[in-house]
């Protein structure tokens, strides 16, 4: 529940998005989508390809103006990118000509922070995302896939956002690293207390990380199910064997199948 | 450079000189057709020491450097606009291509007529010839900026100026410097062509003098050698700048 004064609550109100089609028509992607996300909660968005998960994330991030409806953060309309929102893309999207450190502090540089404050924040951020000191000076090409995603995560957290939006951030990693990253993300969330919205294809990942799993229908995306994950926190990989997990997974799968058949 | 690299360059140079010398011996061409490498080198040294080359070299270098600066500078601006505006590209590109397709040799007399026989006309010719490769390289480079990085910039509320300095320029730099490599060697060509169309000083003038009134063919070869060296040195300068700016990626 949203405590009074708590921050980072998102309200998506009847959002419509469509893209222009080649034949001149419009392709509806999101259809009067409603979603309310409590401050400090973790919500996983799951749905078949083309259900508009990434589009929804971009609307919340203020990168995409919806055709209709509105997004609000703590009651304030989001119509443009907002410093209170941090974003991690599917690919790390690092600047290849900059070192890992300079990629992490890039948002601070754009925001006009002085060098010494940037350096201080860099220390905190690299510790937070678990990036080894020794690779700070490396260029992205000299980093492993996991290190790159850590840098991207550090960059998204640089301005201490109230909301962290993640678009399948670990999908390029192998299954083992991915589970480790999911757990690290949870620890990070426990420390930072920000609201987290995670787009994923993986039911297991959604269950491991989220308080709520929101299932979207195929295009045009609507919310077809909003399922609570009843697993105590802090969670570990062992929790994935619990009976509650298989029940939740079965429910998610049922809704996904239902929405795909519809 | 590695030792092996330096050695192979040296070997190639020696081989080149040896073949040249061999051609001179076997063909029996007189020195006014093909002087031996030793004779050219000797004339080169004497032309340096008696001050024949220096004023001409200075004049040509001045034209090349100024022409390159003007041509490349305007090409950066126009190339950027071409990359960002489809309308401007449609309107301008026919003229740019036409200007490039017209041989500079044919334009040089006209430019000499308009701008006179002084420095200005040569700078214009150099700038013209440098412009096209640098403008195209800039356009291609700016267009190659990853759309994902631009979206990242937008999500971080980068100002247009910040987008330019932190995303577009660094991303386009390798392409731009590639265009400048081509441009700087063309600038030397432009200066010589410009000098042929009428000038008092310059390495192009010296070639004409050596071939004509002086009839000093070894000096002509020595001048050619100087022109080639100017081209090589300027090219290496661009390569060095490139190493500094983008080499570490």
Can you offer a commentary on this structure?
The complex is a heterodimer of chains A (262) and B (249). By secondary structure, chain A is an alpha/beta fold. Chain A has helices spanning 53-60, 100-104, 106-110, 115-129, 145-157, 175-192, 203-209, 243-261; strands spanning 10-20, 26-37, 42-46, 68-73, 76-77, 85-88, 163-167, 195-200, 212-216, 223-228. Chain A folds into two domains: 40-66 and 77-84 and 163-262, Rossmann fold (3-Layer(aba) Sandwich); 94-160, no CATH class. In chain A, the strands form two sheets. In chain A, strands 6-7-8-3-9-10 form a six-stranded mixed β-sheet, sandwiched between helices. The longest helix of chain A has 19 residues, at 243-261. The radius of gyration of chain A is 18 Å and the shape is globular. In chain B, helix 3 (53-84) packs parallel to helix 6, helix 3 packs across helix 9 (203-211) and helix 8 (160-196) runs parallel beside helix 9 (203-211). Chain B is globular, with a radius of gyration of 22 Å. Chain A binds chain B through residues 61-63, 80-81, 83, 87, 89, 91, 93, 95-97, 106-107, 109-111, 139, 141, and chain B through 146, 148-149, 151-159, 162, 166-167, 170-171, 173, 246, 248-249.
Report the sheet with the most strands of chain A, covering strand number, pairing sense and barrel closure: 6 strands, mixed
Task: Give a quick account of the main beta sheet of chain B: strands, pairing sense, barrel closure.
Answer: none
CATH superfamily of the largest domain in chain B: MetI-like
**What is the oligomer described by this structure?**
heterodimer
Order of helices and strands of chain B: HHHHHHHHHH
As a percent range, the share of helical residues of chain A equals 25-40%
- Examine the coordinates and then state which fold CATH places here, giving the name of the CATH topology of the largest domain in chain A: Rossmann fold
Strand order of the largest sheet of chain A: 6-7-8-3-9-10
The number of helical runs of chain A is 8
CATH class categorisation of the largest domain in chain A: Alpha Beta
SSE ordering of chain A? EEEHEEEHHHHEHEHEEH
Biggest interface reads: A-B, 20 and 21 residues
């Amino acid at each position: 529940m949203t405590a009074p004064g708590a921050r980072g609550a998102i309200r998506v109100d009847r959002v419509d998005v469509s893209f222009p089609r080649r034949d001149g028509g419009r392709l509806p992607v999101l259809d009067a989508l409603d979603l309310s996300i409590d401050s400090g909660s973790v919500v996983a968005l799951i749905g078949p390809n083309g259900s508009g998960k990434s589009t929804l994330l971009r609307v919340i991030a203020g990168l995409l103006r919806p055709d209709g409806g509105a997004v609000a953060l703590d009651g304030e309309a989001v119509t443009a990118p907002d410093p209170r929102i941090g974003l991690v893309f599917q690919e790390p999207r690092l600047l290849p000509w900059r070192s890992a450190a300079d990629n992490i502090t890039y948002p601070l540089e754009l925001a006009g922070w002085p060098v010494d404050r940037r350096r201080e924040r860099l220390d905190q951020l690299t510790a937070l995302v678990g990036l080894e000191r020794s690779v700070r000076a490396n260029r992205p090409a000299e980093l492993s896939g996991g290190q790159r995603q850590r840098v991207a995560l550090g960059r998204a957290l640089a301005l201490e956002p109230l909301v962290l939006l993640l678009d399948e951030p670990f999908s390029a990693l192998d299954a083992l690293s991915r589970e480790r990253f999911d757990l690290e993300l949870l620890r990070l969330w426990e420390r930072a207390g920000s609201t987290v919205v995670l787009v994923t294809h993986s039911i297991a990942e959604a269950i491991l990380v989220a308080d709520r799993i929101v299932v979207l229908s195929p295009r045009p995306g609507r919310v077809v199910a909003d399922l609570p994950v009843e697993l105590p926190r802090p969670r570990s990989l062992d929790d994935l064997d619990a009976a509650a997990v298989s029940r939740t997974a079965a429910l998610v799968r049922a809704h996904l199948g239902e929405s795909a058949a519809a | 450079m590695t030792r092996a690299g330096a050695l192979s360059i040296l070997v190639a140079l020696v081989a080149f000189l040896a073949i040249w010398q061999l051609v001179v011996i076997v063909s029996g061409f007189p020195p006014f057709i093909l002087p031996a490498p030793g004779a050219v080198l000797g004339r080169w040294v004497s032309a340096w020491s008696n001050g024949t080359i220096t004023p001409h070299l200075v004049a040509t270098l001045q034209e090349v450097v100024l022409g390159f600066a003007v041509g490349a500078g305007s090409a950066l601006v126009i190339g950027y606009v071409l990359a960002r505006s489809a309308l401007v590209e449609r309107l301008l590109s026919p003229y740019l291509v036409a200007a490039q397709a017209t041989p500079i040799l044919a334009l040089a007399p006209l430019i000499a007529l308009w701008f006179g026989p002084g420095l200005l006309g040569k700078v214009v010719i150099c700038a013209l010839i440098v412009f096209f490769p640098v403008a195209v390289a800039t356009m291609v480079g700016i267009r190659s900026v990853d759309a994902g990085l631009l979206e990242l910039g937008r999500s971080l509320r980068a100002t247009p100026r910040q987008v330019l300095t932190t995303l577009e320029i660094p991303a386009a730099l390798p392409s731009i410097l590639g265009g400048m490599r081509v441009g700087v060697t063309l600038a030397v060509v432009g200066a010589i062509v410009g000098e042929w169309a009428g000038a008092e000083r310059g390495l192009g003038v010296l070639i004409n003098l050596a071939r004509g009134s002086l009839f000093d063919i070894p000096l002509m070869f020595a001048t050619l050698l100087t022109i080639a060296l100017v081209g090589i040195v300027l090219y290496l300068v661009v390569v060095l700048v490139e190493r500094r700016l983008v080499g570490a990626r």
